[in-house]
Structures are given as C-alpha cells and as structure tokens.
C-alpha cells in the first residue's frame, strides 16, 4: 500500500470531518438567536435548572410540532436546563 503524503492525510481528514457533521433541527442563525436570548435571560435571573427560557424561545420562534424534537435533540447534547443548553449544545456550530 502506498504511503500517503501529509497533504493527502489532511485532505482525507477534512473529508471525514465533513462527512461526520451532524444536521441539526435548528439552523446556525436560529441557535445564535436562541443563545443571545438565553444569555440575556440568565443575566437577569440565575438558571432555575429548567428549560423555561429555552421553551419560551422555541414557542415564539418554532412551529409547535417541531419543539419536542428540538428539546429531545438538546437532551442528547446534554442540554437539560437553560444554562446547559448554552454550554453543551450545538458545539459544531462554533458559536462564540
């Protein structure tokens, strides 16, 4: 078997990473808006260890039939309360 060059290895790694990208129910733009909303809410009141603010944002910005699936997706990423949604969810989007 032929030995791969450094550039060939990098290219293969990039292709593999691209193929591993998860498709989320929320777009990057929607996640950014959710995070801005959560940050502003959590600045006013500490996390209540619920997803009260997350659910409110979803109710105002997403179709009703999509909300439960989004909440389940967040749980899979470790988002069981508002602060965990901010800290654990949608890391692939690299939102700062």
UniProtKB/TrEMBL annotation:
Listed Pfam families: DUF2695
InterPro entries (UniProt xref): DUF2695 (IPR024248)
Species of provenance: Longibaculum muris
Name of this chain's protein: Uncharacterized protein DUF2695
Top-level division of the source organism's lineage: Bacteria
């Amino acid at each position: 078997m032929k030995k791969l060059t450094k550039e060939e290895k990098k290219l293969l790694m990039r292709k593999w990473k691209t193929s591993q990208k998860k498709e989320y129910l929320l777009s990057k733009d929607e996640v950014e808006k959710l995070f801005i909303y959560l940050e502003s809410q959590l600045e006013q009141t500490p996390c209540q260890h619920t997803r009260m603010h997350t659910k409110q944002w979803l109710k105002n910005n997403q179709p009703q039939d999509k909300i439960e699936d989004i909440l389940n997706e967040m749980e899979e990423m470790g988002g069981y309360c508002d602060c965990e949604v901010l800290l654990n969810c949608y890391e692939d989007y690299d939102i700062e």
